[in-house]
Design brief:
The chain contains 3 helices and 10 strands.
């Protein structure tokens, strides 16, 4: 099941990349153009995703690492416990206590044999390594660009496709809904992960190329340079 989920992850990623390459001319700037660009993408795979409530998502059979992709062909993997640590002062938690600044995300998976997706924002992840489950607090987002935190991300592409007539997006989620072979695409802006206080002078980050790095947190591990 995990191999299927990972294969599905890359299939969706390449579809998104292909869609972007077809845009020969820039579209008129939307009202959300003043928002930060999603120049960083995290991808997390799991066997199943179940909505415990309309505001709670649980991933079962979660992978032990999270993939990330940035500008300039930068890519790598992060150990899941490191990435999902939501305690204050953890590498991916802002000084105000919000994990990844409550990012936009697109959950892709199979629902009743059909490829479907859910648009949401994520917060307060909880990881259980023994059961390989992850729980997020979520907010299902409206199908409009102004509902998103960033621009030019996977979530933005999903909204654009829905507005063009695609029926992939599930706008309403009932408690108990389950998707299988899932991939969670998380949009982020790199600048938002820069140090936010003198007490937090670096974040786990990458250097050029692909790799594990020290501590399983990405090649080069540290984004250095005090502000």
């Amino acid at each position: 099941m995990k191999l299927t989920a990972i294969t599905f992850t890359f299939a969706v990623l390449f579809v998104v990349a292909g869609a972007r390459s077809l845009q020969q001319a820039p579209a008129p700037a939307p009202a959300s153009s003043s928002k930060p660009v999603a120049d960083l993408l995290f991808i997390f795979s799991a066997d199943n995703a179940s909505f415990q409530t309309s505001t709670t998502l649980e991933l079962q059979g979660a992978t032990s690492t999270v993939q990330f992709y940035g500008a300039g062909a930068r890519a790598g993997v992060i150990l899941t416990p490191n990435f999902l640590n939501s305690s204050l002062g953890a590498p991916y938690v802002a000084m105000d206590g919000n994990w990844l600044n409550t990012p936009d995300a697109a959950l892709h998976g199979s629902f009743n044999g059909t490829h479907k997706a859910v648009l949401m924002s994520l917060s307060s992840p909880q990881y259980n390594p023994a059961s390989k489950t992850v729980t997020f607090n979520i907010t299902v987002l409206e199908t409009k660009q102004t509902a998103l935190r960033t621009t030019k991300g996977v979530a933005n592409e999903l909204v654009a496709e829905a507005l063009a007539g695609s029926d992939m997006l599930m706008p309403l989620i009932e408690p108990g809904t389950v998707l299988t072979d899932v991939a969670l695409f998380i949009d982020e802006n790199k600048a938002a992960l820069e140090p936010m206080a003198e007490t937090k002078t670096w974040w786990w980050w990458w250097g050029p190329g692909w790799g594990w790095g020290w501590g399983g947190c990405g090649w080069g591990c540290g984004w250095y340079g005090k502000k």
